[in-house]
UniProtKB/TrEMBL annotation:
<dbReference type="InterPro" id="IPR045262">
    <property type="entry name" value="STP/PLT_plant"/>
</dbReference>
<feature type="transmembrane region" description="Helical">
    <location>
        <begin position="284"/>
        <end position="309"/>
    </location>
</feature>
<dbReference type="InterPro" id="IPR036259">
    <property type="entry name" value="MFS_trans_sf"/>
</dbReference>
<keyword id="KW-0813">Transport</keyword>
<keyword id="KW-0472">Membrane</keyword>
<feature type="domain" description="Major facilitator superfamily (MFS) profile">
    <location>
        <begin position="27"/>
        <end position="476"/>
    </location>
</feature>
<feature type="transmembrane region" description="Helical">
    <location>
        <begin position="112"/>
        <end position="131"/>
    </location>
</feature>
<feature type="transmembrane region" description="Helical">
    <location>
        <begin position="200"/>
        <end position="221"/>
    </location>
</feature>
<keyword id="KW-0769">Symport</keyword>
<dbReference type="GO" id="GO:0015145">
    <property type="term" value="F:monosaccharide transmembrane transporter activity"/>
</dbReference>
<dbReference type="InterPro" id="IPR003663">
    <property type="entry name" value="Sugar/inositol_transpt"/>
</dbReference>
<dbReference type="InterPro" id="IPR005828">
    <property type="entry name" value="MFS_sugar_transport-like"/>
</dbReference>
<protein>
    <recommendedName>
        <fullName>Major facilitator superfamily (MFS) profile domain-containing protein</fullName>
    </recommendedName>
</protein>
<feature type="transmembrane region" description="Helical">
    <location>
        <begin position="137"/>
        <end position="158"/>
    </location>
</feature>
<feature type="transmembrane region" description="Helical">
    <location>
        <begin position="383"/>
        <end position="410"/>
    </location>
</feature>
<keyword id="KW-0812">Transmembrane</keyword>
<feature type="transmembrane region" description="Helical">
    <location>
        <begin position="170"/>
        <end position="188"/>
    </location>
</feature>
Length: 507
């Protein structure tokens, strides 16, 4: 590293001119707005699947089944064609992420976000005009490719542009916008469900609005200094860094670290995906795999997809189920905001510990209530149904406080520049792939395991919380290009990552 500076902990991190300048705030918020398309689609999918006009056009057989369901409330929505409507997006999102990871070094983070937003825009219009199930799935595929591109580039962009002392808060803006998009989608679903015949078209078509915001924001912002240096545009890179750090701020040290990191990258010409498999990059590969796996095993992904259906299952009416999803959206936003404030002040590990304990408690309590008061041919008594709603809200807030925010923050900040696109791409692609599997399998799993599905997720919460506390290093306040030193000093990862790989250890 430039000057041979290394850090023992986040408190020793150099400031690098970390003031909250107007350019850095505007730039990061415009980039983070890409999260709107994630959240909007998650919210829209579950709500539209509840609309009778939508089911009548594309899934008439399922509509008849739900109207006359009397045997097993856990199985009343178990239909693989319906789940394919949701899951197809995530399968193609995985493909989009892998493609974006391979080209982002050549075209830059900004260009990837523009491409992703554009594909999402086209996909939303195709969905709104869908005349048959095939056209609906094609639109979902385009949406998936757009999600893959934007999801790969946006967290990396935020990590590379934000000042170290505020990085956690800025990266958490991405999941915050996801939560906002989810809330807006459920509010729209609540209104459009009252429009006969074509209300679902309006819900799906309005996805073009956050996509247009994403494209506009990506066009107006500058690319990151690291990305510009990777493409040989040193003058542009320094100008971009000076712009976001503020006039008069000395950026020599930070720019020197960026140049040193990129130079190290160029001395190793093998591809980033091949390089991340090497022993010295083992911690980063483990994080790239573990984070998306554990994120999906919290159970929140399927709750977000199918929350209106889940609330209908436990006894709420259609309007009440949609309103329950809106309440979940508000809880998500509250959790993300609290996390953004806390993570740069108290560190990442505290968030994992509190969130894991609360989520485990909620899952066990929901299993107990559902196992006692929900069975064949019966709906849950109102009081207990409200209790499940409250527990689901606490669970959502706890998830947003912990894994919901940190899933984007930690993988976005830990990777060395030479494997940054591969690490982030692997994490996002695997997450979308697992989203596909869960979205396709959850309703069948609910039908098979019944209330045991909550116990299944509760057990995994114990495992993932232990992993986070023991194996995820504290990264509060550490500059991106000094992150390797944190892993080198870790009790376990130090056997893989060596200090000399990142620079001189003197001073």
């Amino acid at each position: 590293m430039a000057g041979g500076v290394f850090l023992l902990n986040g408190a020793d991190a150099p400031d690098y001119g970390g003031a909250l300048t107007v350019p850095v705030v505007v730039t990061c918020l415009m980039a983070a707005s890409g999260g709107l398309i994630f959240g909007y689609d998650i919210g829209i999918s579950g709500g539209v699947s509840e609309m009778e006009s939508f089911l009548k056009k594309f899934f008439p057989g399922l509509l008849k089944t739900t109207r006359h369901a009397s045997k097993d409330v856990y199985c009343m929505y178990n239909d693989q064609a319906l789940t394919a409507f949701t899951s197809s997006l995530y399968a193609f999102g995985m493909v989009g992420t892998l493609v974006a990871s391979r080209v982002t070094r050549r075209v830059g983070r900004k260009a990837i976000m523009v491409i992703g937003g554009s594909m999402f825009l086209v996909g939303s219009l195709v969905n709104a005009a869908a005349a048959n199930l095939a056209m609906l799935i094609v639109g979902r595929m385009l949406l998936g490719l757009g999600l893959g591109f934007s999801g790969q580039a946006t967290p990396v962009y935020l990590a590379e542009m934000s000042p170290p002392r505020w990085r956690g808060g800025f990266i958490s803006a991405f999941p915050l916008f996801i939560s906002v998009g989810y809330l807006v989608a459920n509010l729209i679903n609540y209104g459009t469900s009252r429009i006969p015949e074509w209300g679902w078209r309006l819900s799906l078509g309005l996805a073009a609005v956050p996509a247009a915001v994403m494209v506009l924001g990506a066009v107006l912002i500058t690319d990151t200094p690291s990305s510009l240096v990777l493409r040989g545009k040193h003058d542009h890179a320094r100008a971009a860094l000076q712009r976001v750090r503020g006039k008069g701020v000395d950026v020599d040290a930070e720019f020197g670290d960026i140049l040193a990191a990129v130079e190290h990258d160029r001395r190793n010409q093998e591809g980033a995906f091949r390089r991340i498999l090497r022993r010295e990059y083992r911690p980063y590969l483990v994080m790239a795999v573990a984070f998306p796996v554990f994120l999906n095993l919290t159970g929140v992904t399927v709750s977000a997809f199918f929350s209106p259906i889940l609330f209908r299952t436990i006894g709420f009416g259609s309007d009440a189920a949609l309103m329950g999803a809106i309440i979940l959206g508000l809880m998500n936003i509250g959790g993300i905001i609290a996390s953004g404030v806390a993570m740069d002040r108290y560190g990442r590990k505290l968030l994992f510990a509190i969130g894991g304990a609360l989520m485990f408690t909620c899952q066990v309590a929901m299993a107990s209530i559902a196992g006692t008061h929900l069975g064949h041919g019966s709906k849950m008594p109102k009081g207990y149904a409200v209790a499940v709603l409250v527990l689901t809200c606490v669970f959502s807030a706890s998830f947003s406080w912990s894994w919901g925010a940190l899933y984007w923050t930690i993988p976005g900040e830990i990777y060395p520049v030479e494997v940054r696109s591969a690490g982030q791409g692997t994490a996002v692609a695997l997450n979308l792939g697992l989203n596909f599997v869960q979205a396709q399998c959850f309703l069948a799993m609910l039908c098979s395991l019944k209330y045991g599905v909550f116990v299944f997720y509760a057990c995994w919460l114990v495992v993932m919380t232990a992993f986070a506390m023991a194996l995820v290093p504290e990264t509060k306040g550490v500059p991106l290009d000094s992150m390797g030193h944190v892993f080198a000093r870790h009790w376990y990862w130090g056997r893989f990552v060596k200090d000399h790989k990142f620079g001189n250890e003197s001073t």
